[in-house]
């Protein structure tokens, strides 16, 4: 097991390149199950979620190659093998195996998913969608059993706007008989990316990226080549990092339109932001204004950037409020930031940040992926050395993070944890 060590307090400068989107990758890879010939996806991030999904596709008989960000999946020999736990629990997005395997084989047994612990993360809307398409769904000892004689298109209204349910229903519906309409669908860019892949495979989908998606089922899907979109959350993390410790940082391979809410909030704080076609420049700030943030579904401020943004707010003079309306308990990073001398308190679904604080290096633990990103930014900002444990969370979503940050002039490295540290981590 490894930890990250960061020598903080030094300004960063230069260009940093964004990788392919994790939340697209984890849906695009399961989507390949639906094809009857090889599918190639270009630009995938080198993250553990992608490797775990590769292993899961291989477990069900897929022939997968993955090199230099390009994955080719030959799904022709796949079978509906039960995947009750093990790798399935390592990531949230293993739930996409339910929709994809149901769509292709009309049956699947998949363990309940893992992923970041952000409070309750039910999948009732996914199941409601599968049932509306004609599947019988049961939960037996922590695994979801799905079976259908035939999948039939249906009108499905989502009670909660859910990224996962929208994509999962799309996966199950593309080969169903007749028309499926998803109402109150989520509108995240990753949904458009998955719909683009499926359309190139031969699916008939209209309205992805709006709140009504219409899918006309087809009998057969075939292979194609697809390039993934850039990761807006990784890009956003680098923008926040640039605002906190940068003296001019250019973020390359980004779609600025995907980050309008973050750009607006950074400008409101007084951070200079310039946008190009596929680049964003974050200038050096001299003074940071306190502001309030409320997370919302896309195109609102993303919950996945709330934790990193909290760190930036410790630099502002005055009081800022961060409210998470998607995951009201997504504040496990706050105790760790307090160890580093931040003045933040949590009240209900809000964190109140009183700044400015001079952060101090400390030994901290990432409880989840974006808590990890927040602690890395805090470590770069802090005086002295910061040690971040829980690296396995960060490795789920940030490709080559150490190399990328060192390229900006940061001093950050991975180090093996001692036996004693691992014991302490287990008991904490
Ligand atoms: C792999 C992936 O893409 N993960 C993202 C995805 O997670 P995920 O797809 O799990 O998140 P959802 O959009 O489904 O969740 C949004 C809200 O709806 C609730 N809900 C969801 C499904 C359901 O059946 N019932 C229900 O009540 C959730 O508890 C949450 O409060 O979107 C989240 C919200 O943008 C992001 O934080 C995650 O990074
Ligand atoms: C919550 C996240 O991921 P997951 O849904 O995969 O746990 C995230 O990417 O911030």
TrEMBL record:
It is an enzyme of class 2 (transferase). Its EC number is 2.5.1.7. The active site is at 116 (proton donor). InterPro entries: Enolpyruvate_Tfrase_dom, Enolpyruvate_Tfrase_sf, MurA_subfamily, RNA3'P_cycl/enolpyr_Trfase_a/b, UDP_GlcNAc_COvinyl_MurA. It catalyses: phosphoenolpyruvate + UDP-N-acetyl-alpha-D-glucosamine = UDP-N-acetyl-3-O-(1-carboxyvinyl)-alpha-D-glucosamine + phosphate. Phosphoenolpyruvate binds at residues 22-23. GO terms for biological process: cell division; cell wall organization; peptidoglycan biosynthetic process; regulation of cell shape; UDP-N-acetylgalactosamine biosynthetic process. GO terms for molecular function: UDP-N-acetylglucosamine 1-carboxyvinyltransferase activity. Residues 8-405 form the Enolpyruvate transferase domain. The modification 2-(S-cysteinyl)pyruvic acid O-phosphothioketal is found at residue 116. GO terms for cellular component: cytoplasm. UDP-N-acetyl-alpha-D-glucosamine binds at residues 92, 121-125, 304, 326. Pathway: Cell wall biogenesis; peptidoglycan biosynthesis. It is found in: Cytoplasm. Keywords: Cell cycle, Cell division, Cell shape, Cell wall biogenesis/degradation, Cytoplasm, Peptidoglycan synthesis, Pyruvate, Transferase. Pfam families: EPSP_synthase (PF00275). NCBIfam families: murA, PRK09369.1, PRK12830.1. Belongs to the EPSP synthase family. MurA subfamily. Cell wall formation. Adds enolpyruvyl to UDP-N-acetylglucosamine. This is UDP-N-acetylglucosamine 1-carboxyvinyltransferase. It comes from Lederbergia citri.
